[in-house]
Design goal:
Layout (H helix, E strand, L loop, with lengths): L3 E6 L5 H15 L3 E5 L3 H8 L5 H10 L1 E4 L13 H8 L4 E7 L11 E7 L3 E12 L2 E11 L2 H17 L4 E6 L9 H12 L6 E6 H10 L6 E4 L1 H14 L7 E5 L4 E5 L16 H13 L3 H16 L14 H11 L6
Parallel strand pairs: 1-2, 1-3, 3-12, 5-10, 8-9, 8-10
Antiparallel strand pairs: 4-5, 4-11, 6-7, 11-12
Helix pairs in contact: 1-9, 1-11, 5-6, 7-8, 9-10, 10-11
The structure holds 1,4-dihydronicotinamide adenine dinucleotide and magnesium ion.
The site of 1,4-dihydronicotinamide adenine dinucleotide has 21 residues, from loops.
């Protein structure tokens, strides 16, 4: 199997714990990654005086592939969000968030929804300013969103190609074109244009965002792939994570033409860092996405099957999923499912 060089950012807080667990399971799986380990976030500040050090960027420029632990964005000190900077730097226009029911007995069974969010445009360009009135310098707040036809077409193409490649039946386009006629109208129009090219292969429909939010709660099973602008995608992806039991099971991928970065949706969880109880599941599922992305479909399938089998046994689940296993015990169980030897 050809080896694939990839950047590894262990991250802050529980980051090093969940990345070590993920690496151990990937090794048991026989995943073909060779890791270039690079500090970022607080670790980046310690080593290089910068949360997003140049050697880290240089590494991703070379490997075009990264697995990233959660990074603590320092409060104050003028640091911009590291995640936003990485997205911009590598033009990671697609945010992929698959969510499926991992543990039975929650609010909903058998949910399997992939949310694809435009990652660079919309209201998140944050072109904002205030207009003073009288003696109030902040009397009026203005924000301009930017959606381009090319950006909308690009993310729609990504969504329909994803659906095709992964045997998905339908893409639902999310918008608010009844009110934000220009900003979300162009997105709807561009996405429909792309969708028509897939007629007979992938079905297409659309929803107004607020109606979608309600229908996700009433009947989430009607959704397959959801395609959304930046802000609506941000909100709906957290809602969908909530349907399947919260952030602990949610992986995410940020994908562009020049690079792709895979991560857990959760943060660095400083409240439980260093205690050996963090759930590495979300980062493992992010690594499974990385296997998909690099064409290692068979390995990804085996990996997910081993994780699913491990979760069937309550005793080997971590505390956030109702068990009492440590990070290490959960990882041992995944490694055992993969047929690997335990330390
Ligand atoms: P968080 O996701 O780190 O924690 C929220 C709650 O979920 C905490 O109670 C935590 O213990 C729990 N939790 C999170 N991941 C868990 C896991 N794997 N296993 C078990 N429990 C888990 O969110 P919070 O506290 O808002 O943010 C903490 C730091 O993380 C901040 O500095 C924030 O900027 C950063 N962050 C980084 C992200 C990234 O790098 N992608 C994403 C979100 C937050
Ligand atoms: Mg969010």
């Amino acid at each position: 199997m050809p080896r694939i060089e990839a950047t590894l950012i262990p991250g802050d807080g529980i980051g090093p714990e969940v990345t070590a667990a993920t690496l151990r399971s990937l090794e048991a799986l026989g995943a073909p990654f060779d890791w270039d380990v690079q500090p970022g976030g607080l670790a980046g500040i310690e080593v290089h005086g910068n949360p997003l050090p140049e050697p880290l960027l240089e590494s991703i420029r070379r490997t075009k592939l990264a697995l990233k632990g959660p990074l603590t964005t320092p409060v104050g000190g003028g640091f911009r969000s590291i995640n936003v900077r990485l997205r911009e730097e590598f033009q990671l226009y697609a945010n992929l968030r698959p969510n499926r029911t991992m543990v039975a007995g929650g609010r909903y069974e058998n949910i399997d929804i992939v949310l694809i969010r435009e990652n660079l445009e919309g209201l998140y360009v944050a072109f904002e300013h205030y207009i003073p009135v009288g003696d109030d310098p902040y009397a009026v707040a203005i924000s301009s969103g930017v959606n381009t036809r090319s950006g909308s077409t690009r993310i729609a193409r990504y969504a329909f190609e994803y659906a095709l490649k992964h045997g998905r039946k339908k893409v639902t386009i999310i918008h608010k074109a009844n009110v934000l006629k220009a900003l979300t109208g162009i997105f709807l129009e561009a996405a429909r244009d792309v969708g028509r090219e897939y007629e007979g292969r992938v079905a297409m429909d659309d929803r107004i965002v607020d109606a979608c939010a309600m229908q996700l709660v009433l009947n989430p099973w009607q959704f397959d792939v959801i395609l959304a602008t930046n802000l609506f995608g941000d909100i709906l992806s957290d809602e969908i994570a909530g349907l399947v039991g919260g952030l602990g099971t949610a992986p995410g991928a940020n994908i562009g033409d020049k690079a792709a970065i895979f991560e857990a949706v959760h943060g660095s969880a400083p409240d439980i860092a260093g205690r050996g109880i963090a759930n590495p599941l979300a980062l493992m599922l992010a690594a499974a996405l990385m296997l998909d992305h690099t064409g290692n479909i068979e390995l990804a399938h085996r990996y997910r099957a081993a994780i699913d089998a491990t979760l069937l046994n309550r005793a080997t689940r971590t505390r956030d999923l109702g068990g009492n296993a440590t990070t290490e015990q959960f990882t041992d169980a995944v490694v055992a499912q993969l047929g690997g030897a335990l330390p």
